[in-house]
Amino acid sequence: MLLNDFYTVADVTPEGNQYSCRIVFNASHAIFGGHFPGHPVVPGVCMMEIVKELLQLHLGSSLMLRTAGNVKFLQLITPDVQPIINISWAQNDQGYKVIASFRNDTTILFKLDGLYSAV
Q: Which pTM value belongs to this model?
């Protein structure tokens, strides 16, 4: 789990089947030392994990990403950026259909559409 080690959350706003918060990265975390030395950026796999962790926290159950129909890494995210995360979901017979994004002001940095199921 990356929460409270690699990143912390602030300004949490849960509303029904939507969740929004601001992410604050731990710039001294070892992940940034290796990705990439001298030019740290948030790894794409960590962005995907953050979405899962926040959704699990809100729903109160363990989840697994089953399919990802659309994943776009649109801008590099450095440790000094504090993106706003927006997650919305709809439950169906297969699990949770999720749409998530990271943005900085008005710029979208990352988008993910996927299906998560309970494990």
A: 0.96
